[in-house]
Structure prediction request, 272 residues.
Amino acid sequence: MKRSLKDYTVNVYVWWFAYVPTELLNIGLTLASWFYYTRFVAGTTGQAEWFLSYILIALMIVPLLNIGVEQPEVTLRSLYRGHVSTGGFRVPVWAYYYLAGIPKAVAAVAGFTFELLRFLIEASIYLILGLIVFRVSFSPSANYIAALLVIILGFLASLTLGLLLANTFWLFLYREDVHINPFTWLVTTAANVVGGAYFPIEVLPSWLRPLSYLLPHTYVFSGVRKALLLGVPLEGVSEELAILSLYALLLPVAILLYRGTENFITYKARKL
Prediction:
């Protein structure tokens, strides 16, 4: 117990006195780079401020969508490739949970909770520094409720996609040399390029745009920017909300498939 309390205290100390200040510096430098880049491209006109606001939205939202896509597999990876040292033995994490009578869902909830907490801190820092230091501004009629609805549905949509991609994890379960699921990596990387994160999808070649329409990221960035930069009413983002809702409706199916894959991996692991 004393050991656990000590480890917890160390983790809290590292989080607040090492991670947060370092991340604050990293975010500040990122915003500064984009600040001067927008002024290099657009000068000191209002267009530069609008461009920086456009980029800021991506910087804030991309990590949240990445959590939805990547965290389901991260949970499986930590359960079935991670180990716990106890009583002089090195026990797989999933077996440790089983012997301790702890539901494996605890690992998923804990992982998501930590990542979402980190996202909220990072997004808050981006927003505060952007508004106060770098003079970012949204439309006077910005629709924050519409933006929030798009973000929530966007996270659920990305989570649906992440759960479906995590079903391929068993293909690489015993490949210790494979540290990243290539399917998940491909989606997260492609989303930054063709999902409209840092530039409109209209500048993409016509043959590449259909891929943009398949990704929920495209509709998240489009809807949030319409709401915050153009100040459109709720019906102005109805298309984005409708498409993201379709993704979200598939979430129960994705969860069932994910649980089936997790049970299959557990069965394979027990046979070893």
Q: What stands out?
A: The mean pLDDT is 84.
